[in-house]
From TrEMBL:
Signal peptide: none annotated. GO terms for cellular component: cytosol; nucleoplasm. One of its GO terms (biological process) is proteasome-mediated ubiquitin-dependent protein catabolic process. InterPro entries: Ubiquitin-like_dom, Ubiquitin-like_domsf. This is Ubiquitin-like domain-containing protein. Residues 3-60, 83-158, 168-240 form the Ubiquitin-like domain. PROSITE patterns: UBIQUITIN_2. GO terms for molecular function: polyubiquitin modification-dependent protein binding; proteasome binding; ubiquitin binding.
Length: 248
């Protein structure tokens, strides 16, 4: 499919596949426009597209989508930060491309999108040291090319793992492509699922009958998982786009 890359001084149309990674798309931009990969920031509707993911993880990117290219002018000491690391669970592992100046929190979000593991349940270790500060850079912990990050899952008692549900106030933001851009204040139990949220919006006639994708903090939400599972907190924004999530 064709997508359009837009920047202040550039406009580029390229052919991409749904299984291409964001990093591969950046390589195409580098070849066509000469903009170094390390200087590129790609975003759609102000959501940054993460290098370690592919277009299948962003169903909002479809034929003809316009992707904004921001050129981040960095010093030579900050270039060539892209590295490949292995994220290892007890029974599985994933190879992920990251930037060494990314934070631990950003890595957890990538793992969540790729593997589905709840962020709040992750404990990341590198060379025996827990990476317990989500705001520190991976490079602060010494993570580099071919590093192996171990993921342990927090063991919680049932009372901790399933706390009593409580009311949650958040805002649902519809996209301008869907209908007139609207902010809808919603109050639901945090144990409510995304499916129940969708049914609520359809039942109140806030949305026409259709298929929708819900996004929270750049992550596609799973229909059968609760708002609590996704880490939704009071005052957060959820974004809605038309479409479905499918895997080839």
């Amino acid at each position: 499919m064709k997508i359009h890359i837009l920047a202040k001084a550039y406009a580029l149309t390229i052919d991409v596949g749904t299984q291409e990674t964001i990093l591969e798309i950046k390589r195409k931009i580098e070849r066509c426009l000469g903009v170094p990969i390390s200087s590129q920031i790609l975003s759609v509707c102000d959501w940054e597209l993460l290098d370690g993911l592919d277009l299948e993880d962003y169903p909002i990117v479809t034929e003809g989508t316009k992707i904004d290219l921001t050129i981040n002018h960095v010093t030579s000491l900050e270039t060539n930060k892209q590295v490949q690391i292995t994220v290892k669970f007890s029974s599985r592992k994933h190879v992920i491309e990251v930037d060494k100046i990314e934070t631990v929190g950003s890595l957890k979000e990538k793992i969540h999108i790729i593997d589905g593991t709840p962020i709040k349940q992750m404990m990341l270790y590198f060379t025996g040291v827990e990476m317990n500060d989500d705001f520190r850079k991976l490079s602060d912990y010494g993570v580099g090319e071919f590093s192996e990050v171990i993921v342990f899952l927090k063991t919680m008692s049932r009372s901790v793992a399933e706390p009593p549900s409580h009311k949650l106030g958040f805002v649902v933001q519809t996209s301008s492509a869907l209908l007139d851009s609207t902010c809808l204040p919603i109050e639901m139990k945090d144990s409510s699922t995304v499916t129940e949220l969708k049914e609520l919006l359809l039942g109140r006639k806030f949305l026409p009958l259709d298929d929708y994708i819900f996004i929270h903090k750049q992550r596609i939400m799973r229909e059968n998982c609760s708002l609590r599972w996704h880490g939704v907190e009071n005052g957060d924004y959820l974004y809605i786009f038309k479409g479905t999530v499918s895997r080839g």
